[in-house]
Amino acid sequence: MSLRGDTNTFSTKEIKRQEAIYELYRGEQDLIEDLQLARKAYHDPMLKLSIMTEEELAHIFGDLDAYIPLHEDLLIKLTEGTGPNGTVAEIGQIVINWLPGLNAYKNYCSNQLAAKALLDQKKQDKRVQDFLQRCLESPFSRKLDLWSFLDIPRSRLVKYPLLLREILRHTPPDHSDVASLEKAITIIQEILSEINVRKGESECKYYIDKLEYLDEKQRDPLIDNCKTLLCHGELRNKSGSRLHVFLFSELLVLTRPVTRNDRSCFQVYRQPIPVRDLALEDLQDGEIRMGGSFRGAFTSGEKAKNIFRVSSVDPSHGQSHTLHVNDVYHKQQWLNCLRTAMTQQQGAPPTLQQGEGVPAKRRSTTICNEETDENCPPVSGPKLRPQTLSKTRLDQKFQGSLKRKETGV
């Protein structure tokens, strides 16, 4: 796919349009190559050498045999739609006819959290560890680990709206392709929205299944109604103890990370607090003296910064927890998430003592290849439920790459 003949016969806008179409085409080629590499260099050898079972590999890799032909099909359609002069006159309808196939990724994206956890667990096996290390040191890996390859399809999904918008941006308003491109953008956004919902529900269930109760009375019936995990992360309580806090749509659950039979889980600490009964207090820096000492964060009795208090308005619970966050930004993320949940459950926004602060930003897992333990996020702040297919930061990155391409940088 390339412009043929004298490029002076094409307007500047048409050249930009064809470059944007080629960007889509080339990205599909790269994705196919990476998926084939994941199968031939990782999946098949590990199966042949019995490093992992077929069931384990299927859980980690998903259905590669279905994804590769899906993207090959788009390449074929784009090639067939290319004219003698190397241009694609109309791409909108081609994409519209192809997009429904992306529904195959619903299960793949929903399973990613569990797949990553299984892969991390298998890395404790020396045979798996040695194999993956040899692959990482080989030229074909481009210094990317296995999970980076497995995460590429999800990263690709969120680029489709951006790529289509870029094509549309360089398409004249009176072009016959405009309506089709607009329809294609709507379709892909609907597909990505459905994938987001499925992934969110899957993530929520994953962590609910990892909760461990010391007493069955702790198992609040509302836990079965939770479909969304708004955010979670590591905080410290007033005595300096490390807690992993989960804010589900219906419940706030404080836990302690523990390991049982080589399985990481979260032991529920005190009774979960229904969000409908939740009270939130934003505490001023220095207002509370925190006891204990941990990693030099504060010494015994020092007045703490970046703290807030959650409690239950239900007298039968009698709970109040003063929680410490590492910095003001992540504190504000927690406050914003808590306020959102309380507004949804209680019908009115709670009043906080301090100002609105910075708006909450949800962590995007779109392009990031995080290697942190999914089960124990860093102390630095909450792990907000991913807008799996969010696009703002990608849009900026994509536009930047296009500008560099145009300027030859």
TrEMBL record:
Subcellular location, principal: cytoplasm
Residue ranges occupied by any DH domain in the UniProt entry: 16-198
Biased composition (Polar residues): 345-354
Cited CDD domains: RhoGEF (cd00160)
Region annotated Disordered, chain positions: 345-409
SMART domains, sorted: PH (SM00233), RhoGEF (SM00325)
GO cellular component: cytoplasm
Compartments in which it is found: Cytoplasm
InterPro entries named among the record's database cross-references: DBL_dom_sf, DH_dom, Endocytic_GEF_Adapter, GDS_CDC24_CS, PH-like_dom_sf, PH_domain, SOS1_NGEF_PH
The keyword Cytoplasm is assigned to this record: yes
SUPFAM superfamilies tied to this protein: DBL homology domain (DH-domain) (SSF48065), PH domain-like (SSF50729)
Annotated PH domain residues: 228-343
Any one GO MF annotation of this record: guanyl-nucleotide exchange factor activity
Keywords on record: Cytoplasm, Guanine-nucleotide releasing factor
GO terms for biological process, alphabetical: intracellular signal transduction; positive regulation of Rho protein signal transduction
Protein name, UniProt field: Neuroepithelial cell transforming 1
Organism: Anabas testudineus (Climbing perch)
Originating gene: NET1
